[in-house]
Amino acid sequence: MSFARCAILLLLFAFPVGGHAVSYLRLDSGIVERRLKVVPADAVSRMRLLRQQFQSAGCDPARSTEQSVEGEALPNMICTLPGSAKGTIVIAAALDFDVAADESHSRWATVAMLPLLAESLNSSSHRCTFVLVAFTGHEKQVGSEAYLKALPESTKRSIVAMIDLDRLGREPIYAFPGPQVMRDVRVGRTATIAVATPHDETPLSQLLLAAANTLKFPLPPQSADAPPVTDAISFDREKIPALVVTSRWYATLNKFDGTQVRVQEEKTDPKQYYQTYNLLCVFGLHLDQAFGSERVKPGEKVVAEKEIADHLLAVINGLRANSKLAPLTLEPRVAGDALQQAAAFAANKRLSNELTVEQRLATLSVPVTGASEVWFVFPEEASKNDALIRESIGEDTRKSLLDPRYTMTGVAAVHRGKSYFAVATLVSPASELSGSDAEEAMVKAIQQSRVKLGFSEFPSATPSSGLRELACSMAKQNSLQVGIDGINATKVYAFESNDPANSSWVLEIAKYGTEPGANQQMNSYEVTLGICRSTSGPISTGNFYVLVELNRK
Asked: What pLDDT is attached to residue 358?
């Protein structure tokens, strides 16, 4: 009787990862939902229930540890699932929380995810060792710091990934530990405001999206809010790759006056929670396949990295041909940069440094007007089966690959474990026009726009060597204000563009003096302009700096 009941409530779910059939024991949604309903009344009951659930998941006393932490009433509760090779993946959640708080249900749902994952991952063969930890003292990361401090240095170095779970139970999103990166954005001519920039994607976030793609789930977005304060911070300090998987716990409502307000939502959605459970199971196995080291068997042939890169480029150009787009041309300097990024990807490091991809390419004397990077993880079998490459290309990736602006690329792959980590850098090359050619083209475009608007051409529209020098000063200092401050004219335009003659500024300049009430004077302006390519600056992006003045004749 009990066997039949288990057969109904447990399902062996199989799916392809890295070219191999991988399976895990997927608990029935009814089991998961019933566990959500049982919220322990206090910390002691919480520990007792969590201990029972870990044991039921296969964490017997030999695999379980309760680590005392100085100054904390609760211990760290640790469940270890040994793997067959090197590499450790830590999955953690907070054990201590206020049961009287509004979010207590989501907090319990989060820590209760650990034994669910243990039960499912324990059923699958895995190379990495999975360590599932409920940390105490999470607000100040006391428990996680004590855990890391107690580890031998060799064990600490073996940790390839740390996944921190935080307030699960609604639409899954992901975030990165550490402070937000801010950048200044110009508003108007002189004012700037500081805005948060999205964190660079990492191998961990890419593999989370790959797991969602495997399950045909919606891709979790990166959180736009301030990074949550979680135990991932302790691992990030130790240079251990970390990712926070959390939920969006508010709804955004539009008010009648056009403003928006956030309304807190504390109720756990069982359907979203169950979907997150499946996502995390597959994510864990993706991490295991990607970073679990395994010795190459005697006589086993490892396919050359260049061959994988060539196959990927062929698949990309095949997709473009099907969409009637020209193939991407391979640029060796761009491929060299892609190789560096692929090496960082394979080493599970952040994929880029402080420079953008456009700036990195500019240092290699490859001026571009736009660029994008796409990351892939392939099994070794992909060299013999292009279908494995095509299957890894999700909808968002496909849109980037089929963007008609990109005509140049660099593709590279690096082998690690049983996988290939590949990067394709897509490039829109900068125009080959010189500054003087761009000036002539813009003068012509301005006068043509005047005629199209139904007005006479400006009496005079000419390039100026003096304005060109000022434009080059703007490029060198990366400041439009330098040009604005350097001239005294009736009207001044200063802007940056990769194609000045086709920019929206041409129409703005052509319309000047045509506003109502200015009809008698609309033809009495002379236009003078200077253009300088940003190669004059410290970092060449290939864009043009443009300075235009209008004066009464």
From this structure: 79
